Amino acid sequence: MQPRPNQRLSSQAMAFVLAGGRGSRLKELTDKRAKPAVPFGGKARIIDFALSNALNSGIRKMAIATQYKAHSLIRHMQRGWGFFRAERNEYLDILPASQRVEESKWYLGTADAVTQNIDIVDSYNVKYVIILAGDHIYKMDYEIMLRQHVDTGADVTIGCLTVPRQEASAFGVMDVDATGRITAFLEKPKDPPAMPGDPNHSLASMGIYVFDWAFLRGLLLSDAEDANSSHDFGNDLIPQIVRDGKAMAHRFSESCVRASTEEEPYWRDVGTIDAFWQANIDLTDFVPKLDIYDNSWPIWTYAEIVPPAKFIHDEDGRRGSAVSSLISGACIVSGSEVKNSLLFTGVRAHSFSSVEFSVILPYVTINRRAELRNCVIDRGVVIPEGLVIGADPEEDAKWFRRTDAGIVLITQEMLDRRAAKLG
Question: Which domain of life is it from (predicted)?
């Protein structure tokens, strides 16, 4: 397929989103849902950021590979992303691991998830494929990365973060020459290589890869025949291209979408309880590092039809109020005090309760005189009357999951066990 003059490359590309992982570091938050389906930012799910980046970049063909406990993720896709129209040459396919190759064969790795769906990608008739992780928070224009890929004639272009060198050991790190060509790919090295001209920083992989589909297709078929391969992009395909082909680094700072208030490129892996809590609480800052109010680059999601938030009671000690907080639709703050917190849809906070520095997922009920500080409360939890969290670390750890940083995760199962134990 030959491009027309001045045609955006994104119109010839598809986004293949890898959304099959559990995200076990989020502990009980992913007991019932995959990490990409975890709610974020008051209304969205984590996967909405990658999909919104693709849509805002002009990509109208997408596929989402799912595997682990995918029901809530699939339901979210159906409700929030069902506006693609085939008659406009737009497609969004959900590709669960479904034993398409062998009855005993699920997705064996990130590359295998694409390999098992080669026929579906072929049907899109695209020239480029962007491989995306479905579990990071960021805003990025993929068209800019596509343009670099074409201009440099790369076999693969890899999205890279600039990170302090002393922190780079937690990532896959790129060693690059002065032209941006990747000369080595090192997985979590003890001594990360520095960027050219910058001894204090390294380039870390974002897990974003741009390929020509014809090239990737051949590579996948060859990898599928290799019994020694783990069929993974980071472990197998990327190192092979670095060794035998042309791999180029694309710096996130060059394509990061920033509003006027955003001072530096924002990317977060919210894969731990602490990181998830912090990224949500960051949104309550006076000038947040991530601007989700930027209408020029909206975060698309399922727009649940609910009434506005409501604040009731206005007397000393019983005043419905929220300060430095995000309060979503259908919340009722009834004589409760909310500070530096994020309440998702449908939360009910009853009289004389208080919420500080907490992330409250949808449809949680906080009963009277409960006090919550430094918490993440899972969806649908009913907080008992008078429960105090965040004041006594030993008591918190006895019943709930408390991180080393002091963030407390609460699920209904934990509360039920506590109630059964206390009688």
Answer: Bacteria
327-369 pLDDT tens trace: 999 999 999 999 999 999 999 999 999 999 999 999 999 999 9
- 259: Cβ–Cβ under 8 A, 6 or more apart, which residues? 291, 293, 294, 296, 297
202 labelled ligand-binding: no
Q: Is 109 annotated as a binding residue?
A: no
Q: Is 107 labelled a binding residue? A: yes
CB-CB contact of 140 with 255 (8 Å): yes
Which 8-state DSSP code applies to residue 289?
Answer: S
Neighbouring CB atoms inside 10 A of 187's CB total 12
Give the alpha-carbon dihedral of 121, 82, 381, 399, to 10 degrees.
10
- Do 354 and 335 meet the contact criterion of CB atoms below 8 Å apart? no
3-state secondary structure of 131: strand
> Does 188 belong to an annotated binding site?
yes
Structure tokens at 231: 């069929």
- Locate 416 and state its tokens: 């039920």
For the cut 50, the answer to whether the pLDDT of residue 15 exceeds it is: yes
Can you tell me the mean pLDDT for 305-328?
97
255 labelled binding-site residue: no
Q: Residue 105: is its pLDDT beyond 70?
A: no
Tens of pLDDT, residues 371-423: 999 999 999 999 999 999 999 999 999 999 999 999 999 999 999 999 999 97
Distance set, CA 327 to CA 116, 188, 322, 349 (Å): 42, 39, 8, 11
List, in sequence order, every residue forming a beta bridge with 249; answer none if it has no partner: 158
- The Cα angle at residue 35 between residues 117 and 331, in degrees rounded to 5: 130
Nearest to 129 by CA among 219, 246, 10: 10
Residue carrying the six token digits 């949500």: 280
Strand 44-45 relative to strand 39-40, pairing:
antiparallel
Amino acid 101: pLDDT: 57
Distances (CA, A) of 68 to 4, 14, 50, 98, 400: 40, 23, 19, 12, 24
Beta partners for residue 46, in sequence order: none
According to DSSP, the residues that pair with 128 across neighbouring strands are 13, 212
77-93 burial by CB neighbour count: b if 16+ within 10 A, else e?
beebbeeeeeeeeebbb
CB 212 within 8 A of CB 127: yes
